[in-house]
Design a protein that fits this description.
2 copies of one chain form a homodimer. With about 475 residues, chain A is of the alpha+beta class. Chain A contains 17 helices and 18 strands. The first copy, chain A, has helices spanning about 10-30, 35-40, 65-75, 130-135, 150-155, 165-170, 170-175, 205, 240-255, 265-275, 295-310, 320-335, 335-340, 360-375, 400-420, 440, 445-455; strands at about 30-35, 55-60, 80-85, 100-105, 110-115, 120, 140, 175-180, 185-190, 215-225, 225, 230-235, 260-265, 285-290, 315-320, 345-355, 380-385, 390-395.
Chain lengths: ~475, ~475
């Protein structure tokens, strides 16, 4: 059964795709796949954005393969869409104009680990867990941890972060250099292994977060961190979301180098209790982790405990045993699934915004009120040390009235974040889902600059078109 | 007396400049200056790069002024060169094709301090010391400290860093958002105040380090850090540069969050002893600083002391009193002047490279040997936690033979850094002085991408032309 044609595609586009597919088949043999199921797996499968499959999926094994694929596509003006693990949330991997999906599954080697320099070089298909398993015995780790076991290429492309970002930064801070295949088929290196440089334009940071629209990442040099001597975790309940947020602000301001500080609202705690068999009090809760020396983490956690008490929170409950700690953070990582269990059969639409931390309590409080007034179910959890929080909107995709209420809620959430000098997304990216908010967030001059940059590096508009900005 | 005309300028160019100057005079009155001395002060006055003055200097007072100036210049295709304090080292403020220098001296207000969010908003003419004086009573500080008391606009434009970068990062990590006037006269905001965002292309990081070639910065939102509860400083001698570098590597790898770790070679120590009236042993020396709690800095310094001892260094000498600490760091900040005092009357040509830290010892050692074999005098000091080091080459600009040797030495220094996967500049930038090294550092595809970006945002090539890349 044929799939529905992408809406904006002409007969010529279809013919061009066929030409490229024939050439790819000749070159890549069974590393080119055109079956419907595989194509659908390579398009968006999360949230409510429709699945828009590519015309074919190809599995490159090296940078040179990618260059050949891009050159073939460029010759026929066929879109090129990079694919890691398919866990992005805003339709970043969809093919609204058809095209070729490049699946980096086979480019999954750790090419070098320079433990002395605290960096490593990897192919884009390596996932974060795979990397950390390979690093462990060298005393170093890669700290960025989105919910999914995402590929590092995809993580760089979406400028993702996670629970450790408050201490270790986001992908922007942890990518030292990239190898990138540009729309013209040339491969460029964006930087060298030096820890800092002021040599010319920061191509690395321009590519990080560009979601495959400026080029395809084929190699990453990543910063690593030393595995801390001591790790301490704990949970701390608060009477209100405000109190939890204020404790977070004080913690950051006091210079306590907290490694993780995660807010779960009462509803999310209830979900986690039920899903992960915990017995936490069902009230706003901070999950915390401290990294350092034994003496250091003891001091950090004591300082935090005092702050929490001052704000009416506590008791701060320690997970001193490694297995309790793992259980706690596993529950945090399973929060998405826990949320879904609140309403079996519903779809969870995950979204995120980020605001200056001083506005966080207000933003979360107003959002909770809005959820209630919209008669929707949406637990909240957040990387509150960064002012970043998530909603898991549990919806029945077939209920039109509910969906209309949900969409309005999401728009008000973004408006609220922007009104507080925040951003429409702290870590999920723009993809297709949030393109409409960019003008409000940046204003026309910045948006025009983004379009100019896109045209400069991708004049034919073949690199993941229809994402971030439209030409 | 008329100045020499810029070499590439035609009669039409001169006429265009006159047209702009007349319009600026009408609009800005005595805020437009065309005297020779002021023009010369607004061009390069450091190192051996020739002074190439602009046609006029104008003192804007707000973003709207800058927009008007840029529009007038764009209409006549006259270059626009932003000027902070004139302390850049690679000719960044020169006007090789003439043009209008925008001196931000009068845009020196701190517009807002958000201590809760650890950020502030400033105009580009604010200097780092001025900012820290205004922040002090709010318990926060801005950590980036290049040698000079530079303007924050200039510091962002050159992606500078300094002694605190090993802990607090460089300008790339500490600029949250910029307001920038583009070549078309539009003012764009590159980001909002949220601590992180994955919304579209990272315009902030693209502008940081672009040296005024993509736009003129008229406002900066900066990250701040909390003033640490305790600060401890000390000095530690080592038998060799290698031992000092290895101690640095181990310190970083052990996760000791050192705030400053600075190498001075024996010659630089001698210079500082003489200039700053210190009595340090004249051997390779690390200057260190630790930030944290009382217990934290005590623990950090104990750990460092053990590492130093293990590598044959020490004794690690504490400066417990604040005045001893200030004296030490003042001596470090005066290292440039101390170096000059080694050869009165000589010019100090300051340069820097940055390599992966594992290669640092080798790079410094080979450079010392090269200096000796070149019969030149050049003390070395470095931000070794980042693998970044400086040479102060003491030369007689009128001695042709010596200058020839010096130039070859500098070229070999860059070649050496690049061969070690390093960069031709860790913090001084490209300007005019290091343009010739970009192709070797990045390769042609990346350089072509940089040119494409420049053309995209500045199609008329009026924004600080002749710096970083030539169109």
């Amino acid at each position: 059964m044929a799939l529905v044609e992408p809406p904006d595609r002409t007969k010529e586009d279809r013919k061009a795709a066929d030409t490229v597919i024939a050439a790819l088949a000749a070159r890549f043999g069974n590393r080119l796949v055109t079956s419907r199921s595989v194509r659908e797996q390579h398009a968006n499968t999360t949230t409510w954005i429709a699945n828009e499959p590519p015309d074919a999926v190809v599995f490159p094994q090296c940078t040179d393969d990618v260059q050949q694929i891009v050159r073939l596509c460029a010759a026929e003006r066929v879109p090129v869409i990079a694919f890691g693990t398919g866990t992005s949330l805003e339709g970043q991997i969809n093919a609204p104009r058809g095209g070729i999906s490049l699946d980096f599954h086979d480019m999954n080697r750790v090419l070098a680990v320079h433990a002395e320099d605290l960096d490593c070089v990897v192919e884009p298909g390596v996932t974060r867990k795979q990397l950390n398993e390979q690093l462990r015995d060298q005393g170093v780790f890669f700290p960025i941890d989105p919910g999914a076991d995402a590929s590092l290429g995809g993580m760089a492309a979406t400028r993702c972060s996670g629970t450790n970002a408050v201490r270790y930064g986001t992908m922007k801070d942890n990518v030292l250099a990239l190898k990138v295949v540009l729309a013209n088929g040339e491969a460029m290196s964006t930087a060298r292994r030096a820890k800092k440089s002021s040599a010319g334009y920061d191509l690395t940071r321009l590519l990080v977060g560009s979601e495959g629209t400026l080029g395809v990442i084929t190699e990453l040099t990543l910063r690593l961190a030393g595995i801390p001597e001591a790790v301490a975790s704990g949970v701390c309940p608060f009477p209100t979301v405000d109190a939890a947020c204020n404790a977070t602000i004080l913690t950051i301001q006091s210079g306590i180098p907290v490694a993780r500080i995660e807010l779960l609202d009462a509803l999310q705690v209830r979900a986690c209790n039920s899903y992960s068999k915990l017995a936490l009090p069902e009230m706003p809760m901070l999950f915390l982790e401290f990294h350092g020396t034994d003496a250091g983490v003891a001091e950090q956690s004591q300082c935090f405990g005092e702050i929490a008490q001052e704000l009416g929170g506590g008791p701060f409950d320690w997970a001193t045993r490694a297995e309790d700690r793992s259980r706690l953070w596993q529950a945090r990582h399973d929060a998405y699934w826990a949320a879904r269990s609140l309403r079996p059969g519903a779809q969870a639409v995950a979204t995120d915004v980020c605001v200056p931390i001083s506005r966080l309590a207000e933003c979360v409080r107003e959002t909770q009120r809005d959820i209630e007034q919209s008669r929707l179910l949406a637990p909240i959890l957040g990387h509150v040390g960064d002012g970043n929080f998530h909603l898991s909107l549990l919806v029945d995709l077939t209920d039109e009235d509910e969906m209309a209420r949900a969409k309005l809620l999401l728009e008000r959430l973004v408006d609220r974040a922007l009104a507080m000098d925040g951003t429409c997304t702290g870590e999920h990216g723009i993809g297709q889902g949030k393109m409409k908010y960019l003008a409000a967030e940046y204003g026309e001059p910045a948006l025009a600059a983004m379009r100019a940059l896109k045209r400069a590096l991708d004049p034919l508009d073949i690199m993941n078109p229809g994402k971030i900005v439209s030409l």
